[in-house]
Amino acid sequence: MKRNKEKPEGRTLRQDAALLWRALKIWDEIQPRFWLYGILAPLASTAIPYFGLFLSSELINELAGARDPGRLFALAGIAVGGGFALSVLSRMLEGRKEIAQSYQWVKQEEYLNRAQNGFQYEHLEDPKVQLLRSQIFADSNAFGGGLIYVYHAFPGIAEQLFRILLSAALTVSMFTLRADGTSSGLAGWAASPAAAVLMAGLILAGAAGSVRLESAKMTGSQEAVFELAECNSRVAVYGSLWGADMIVFGLNRIVTDDFRRYGLRPEWVRKLGKVGEKYGSLLTLLRAGMDLALFLFVAAKAYLGAFGIGSFVLYQGTVSRFVEAVGELSGRIGGLRNNNRFLAQLYEYLDLPNNMYRGTLAVEKRDDLDYEIEFRDVSFRYPRTDAYALRHVSMKFRIGEKLAVVGENGSGKTTFIKLLCRLYDPTEGKILLNGIDITRYRYDEYLALFSVVFQDYMLFDLPIGENVAASPDYDGERVRASLIRAGLGEKLAALDALAEERGTRAAALAVGRGYDSEGIDLSGGERQKIALARALYKDAPFVVLDEPTAALDPIAEAAVYEDFNRVARDKTTVFISHRLSSCRFCQRILVFDRGRIVQTGSHEMLSEAEGKYRELWTAQAKYYVGSQEE
To answer: pLDDT tens across 204-261, in order?
Structure first.
C-alpha cells in the first residue's frame, strides 16, 4: 500500500479541521487530562514573562515619576511574590503535563490495539493492512507523526494564542494614549491618530507577512521532511530485525545497500538547510524592520509625554512578541496541516469496514454439552481471489467426538477451522449449531465454545500463569492442573524449586527474557505444551489442534496428540494435520484434497480402501510402524 502523498493544498480547510478535530476527540477519549494540562500549563508559563514585563514597566514609570515609596514597595512585592507564585504554579502544571505525556505512546498503542481487536479477521491477514499498520507505527515511533504530533502541537498552539492575546491586551493603550503637548515635524506626526492607524496596519501587515513566510517555509521543506519520514520508517523496521542470520549470511549487506538506495540522502538535508536559511533570513529581516518602525513610533510618543519610559519598554516587548507569536502560530498550524496526511492514513486503518454480521441470539448453555455442528454445502474463497479454498463441504459432528482432519498442505484443513471458528463466513452454504445458522448467534458467545491451538500459536514473555489463562488475573490451581494435564508435570516440579528460591510461585515465572531478565528458557516442546494447557484452561466444549506440533518429528507429534486425546476427556476434539499420526485413535477421519472432503471414516476402514488416505498412509507409514507395533 503506497503512502498517501496528498499535499495540504489538496484538502480544504474544512477537511483539515475535521481531521484535526477527530484526533483531538481521540485524545480526549483515551487521555482526558490532555485538554486540562495542555491549556493550563502553557497559560501559566506564558503569563510569567508578561507579568514581569508589566510590573517592570510600572516600576520604571514610578521611579521616573512620583517615586512614591509606598507604591514602589507594593509594586516590588507584587512583582516578586506574584512572579514566585506563577513560577510555582507553572512548574506544578508543567510537571503534571509531563507525567501525562509520559503515557502518550502507550495510550496511543493501547487505543490502536483495542481498535484492531474489533477488526474483521480478514483485515488482519491482508498484507496491505499489515503494511499500513507498520507504516503508522513507524511514522509515530520514528517521525512523531499522526496522533503523537497532535498531542505535542496542541500545547504549543495554546501557548502562541495566549501570547497573542496577552500582547494585544497590553499593547492597546499604546494607540489610545495621547500626548499632552504638541510638536511639529516627524515627532508631532508620530503622535497623531493617523500615525497610530498606520502603525497598527504595519503590525498587522508584519504579522501577515510572517504567516506567509512561515507557510512558505513549511511548504518548501515539506517534500524533504516527507522523504525523511520514509527513511525513518525503514530505520524503525531494520532496528527490530537482528539475529544469527545477519551474522552467518552477512544479511547486513542488504541493510547497508537498502540504506544507500533509500536511506538518508545528503540532498534532503541540503534542501532542508536551504529552505531554513532562505526563509529564516527573510523572517529575521521582516522582524528587524518591524522592530525599527515600532521603536521610532513608541519613542516619538514617549518623547512627547504620551507615556513614561516604563511603558516604552513594555510596548517594545509586547508588540515584538505579538508578531513573533503570530508567525509561530502559523508555522504550527502549517505543521498540523502537513501532519494531516498521517492522520488520514491512520483513519484509513481505523475505518476498515467490518461487514461480518454479529448475531443477537444467545448460545444455549447446556449442562450436558449436547452441541451439534453441521457444515451444509459450504464453499469458500478468500477475499481478493477467485480460487475456492473449500468446495461443497458437508459434514456433521457432535460433542465428545474425536475427529481428525487430514490432507496435504494447501488442501483446505486450516480454512475449514477458520470457518468453524467463524473467523470467516462461508462464501456459499451454511454452518449450523444445533440447527441454527451460526451467524445468528452472538459472536463472542459462539467463540467461547472453542479452544484452538494454532500452528503459529503465540506466547508472550509474561508469567506462565498469564500465558495459560490469557489474562493477568488467573486461578493458580487451575493453571497448575492444566499444565500437568498438558504433560508438563516434571518440568513444573523443577520450576517449583526455582520459584521457591526466588520467593514466588512457578506460575509467576516469566516465559522468556523479553521483559524479565530472570525469565525462564523453555524448549519448543515445552512451549507447545503451555499452548495446549491454555486450551485446557479455557475448558471450552470444542478443542481444536491445528498442527501446533508441526515442528516436531512424526513420532513425537503422535505422542503429543495421543497424550492430549487422553486428557481432553469428553470434549469434542478436532486434530488437524498433514501427517496421519493423529488419526488412529480418532472415531472419524475427514480427508481433504484440493478443498473438498474426498473420504470419511475410521483409520482401519480408510487404510484398507483405495483412495487419498491410503496413499498418504502408505507414504508416511515408515514413521508410525514402530509406534503402532508398540
So the answer is: 776 666 666 655 665 555 555 555 555 555 555 555 555 666 666 666 666 666 666 6
Residue with cell 514585563: 53
Question: Rounded CA gap, 33 and 37, in Å?
Answer: 6
DSSP state of 6: -
pTM for this model (two decimals): 0.73
What are the distances in angstroms from CA 12 to CA 9, 22, 339, 346, 464? 7, 16, 14, 19, 53
Coil/strand/helix, residue 308 = coil
The string of pLDDT tens digits covering residues 517-568 is 888 888 887 888 898 899 889 888 888 888 776 666 666 667 777 777 777 7
Grid coordinates in use for 413?
A: 484443513
Other Cβ atoms within 10 Å of 261 Cβ, number? 8
Q: By the 8 A CB rule, do 218 and 329 touch?
A: no
Three-state DSSP string of 560-590? HHHHHHHHCCCCEEEEEECCCCCCCCCCEEE
Are residues 449 and 541 in contact, defined by beta-carbon separation less than 8 angstroms? yes
How long a stretch of residues is the chain?
630
CATH of 8-31+103-350, one of 1.20.1560, 1.20.120, 2.60.98, 3.30.1890: 1.20.1560
Q: Is 611 helix (H, G, I), strand (E, B) or coil?
A: coil
What CATH code is assigned to 459-539?
Answer: 3.40.50.300
